[in-house]
Amino acid sequence: MNLFRSFRAAICVPAVLTWGLPAQAADLAPPARAIYQAPAPSGSLSDFVSQLRLGVLAHDPGGKEDGSVDVIGEVVFAKPWSHGNPLVDMLLPTFNAGISANTDGKTSYVFAGLNWHADITDALFIELDFGGAVHNGKVGDVVPDGRDALGCRVLFREAASIGYRFDANWSVLATVEHLSNGGLCDDNRGLTNVGAKLSYHF
Questions:
Q1: Which pTM was predicted?
Q2: N or C: which end of the chain has fewer CB within 10 A?
Q3: Which of 131, 129, 128, 125 has its CA nearest to residue 172?
Q4: Which stretch of DSSP H or E encloses residue 11?
């Protein structure tokens, strides 16, 4: 009888002691590693557009189309690249596009190109544009009085601006722009406009 009790104890005691080991082992195991998921793109306007601008320019002051004004609307797109170095980022341009409508039925145009921006101080900055424009002005051999002989339908466009930033969202720019065909056509009168633009930064 004593032998039977000893045998039963030898079997039952280890079974009781090991009963909770699987659950304890599961508690001690490290948690499953979370799988990283990139956030879904927001698709908001500010993901693609950096600034919206609206301005008024004196149209061709001192030229044949003098005496009228242009209303200009411009989009500056978000910069598609960034180097991380402020100097290098200053040299990398972004894209801009817009439309300039003359209020007196003279030359209007749409434009697109590259825009370079450089901060001088926290508030003061400068910009340069280079690109192209398509206009509805006068080309060809017969150009009426009071209109510029622009030669080509497609022109180069260069612009320079100096701006002042009021806060994180609003700034104002004084701008001069010039459109010409660079001598690629027989006539190359060119068109120069001067004025100001108000800019909203997202």
A1: 0.76
A2: N
A3: 125
A4: helix 2-18
